[in-house]
Specification:
Radius of gyration: 22 Å
Largest sheet: 4 strands, antiparallel
Number of helices: 0
Order of helices and strands: EEEEEEEEEE
Structural class: mainly beta
Length: about 170
């Protein structure tokens, strides 16, 4: 779920940061180290009465942040790096009867898409074989045309990685 991303700096110092999509190659760092001209993080103290302003109002699926503390008259701190991955939680089937079941999801605002042909993987684009979006808790009712039906479901949320595909065989 969406979270506040803040940097806890040392009082009296300036905290500079840079960020970007996490590089796909671990050996090629495409995010510059913070320094003069970099963004300045607002001061945050743990245990305050209100949440700090998030550094990133819009999340990206895979974000890396680099930060450094500096103060006049002393050497800057080492550059520290943190990676944040936002992935939609895997759907959970609620019910064992194809005539009445639903999906739950731990990710707020997630939408589920499902297939019933047993072969097609769900995408977030409805079609003749992909059904949805289905919000958590909405009842789904299927009529079995054959003895068994394999339902595959996947959850999606804007700016998050899609969930894993979860399946259930109804007989």
């Amino acid at each position: 779920n969406d979270v506040v991303i803040a940097i806890k700096g040392q009082e009296g110092t300036e905290t500079l940061y840079t960020s970007g999509d996490t590089p796909t190659n671990a050996f090629i760092d495409t995010i510059p180290d913070p320094g003069p001209g970099s963004a300045t993080a607002p001061f945050y103290r743990n245990g305050g009465s209100s949440l700090p302003v998030t550094l990133f109002p819009t999340v990206v699926p895979d974000l890396t942040v680099k930060a450094i503390g500096s103060q006049n008259g002393r050497r800057p701190s080492a550059v520290v790096k943190a990676r944040f991955q936002f992935k939609t939680g895997s759907p959970v089937f609620v019910g064992d009867n194809a005539a009445s079941f639903s999906f739950n999801n731990v990710t707020s605002g997630a939408e589920m898409f499902y297939t019933t042909d047993g072969a097609t993987d769900p995408t977030n684009v409805p079609s003749t074989t992909v059904f949805g979006p289905v919000p958590a808790g909405q009842t789904i009712q299927l009529t079995l045309a054959t003895t068994n039906i394999l339902v595959k479901v996947r959850a999606f949320k804007t700016n998050y990685q899609p969930s894993e595909i979860v399946s259930n065989l109804f007989s």
